[in-house]
Here is the input.
Amino acid sequence: MPTTVSVRERRAKGRVFTQLHLTSDSGVNPLSSGTVQEIRETLQRLCAPGTAHGLLLSAEGRSFSAGADVKEFRSFDLGDFRRYMSDILAMYAEMTEFPKPIVSLVHADALGGGAALAFFSDFVIAVDSARFGLPEVHRGLAGGGYLMPKLIGKHRAAEMVLLGRSFSASDMLGWGLVNEVCSAGEMEERAHALCEELATLSVEAFAVAKASLSGGLALGLREAMERHVVAQTEAFARARTERSAAAVASGN
Here is the structure.
């Protein structure tokens, strides 16, 4: 059976966060075509003003997500496979462009596309028993070569992409791929604390900062710098307008 995506709501300091929770009969929560589509639709919906302050991704079972649904692949022709790959990579790109915080709560192993789902989040909290890996090379495919060198450098990336090794959550913390490592019993407390911190940030301020950060990841240097200038100028203009309005209201 495919992965079920349930929508939950959580609150922190008066802010509402949407949480997508993955479950499956197999317990490995594959990212099937339908699952990818549901996540993409949620990202699109939450871009609108007045929606949730941020998005959390969580799961239950023996994996956070084991990546692509290899059973689904058995029915694919070449066109189907190309469309699937285009869709899942589009989802990752949309996560980078999403103007609000995305937090992955990795309670168990994150492999292949499931590891990428975590790495494309803005923040990752992982339990100490979780392992991360890109094992696609063992199936004659490639995993994450478009991303990993930018995150951890060529030679560490080679261990994951070319050798398909898996690594502990502590390794990932040391490599800068996760933000926090905790016990399973501490996960909820850590998640709530991060949501409370994010709740203190305005949507507009976070969007500006994330646009600059994502530009550094996805673009060439000059293009990233230009995006940074545009984002900063828009923020400056908005702040000036707000100050002017406040001055008029106070009579100064």
The first strand starts at residue 4 and ends at 12. The mean pLDDT is 91.
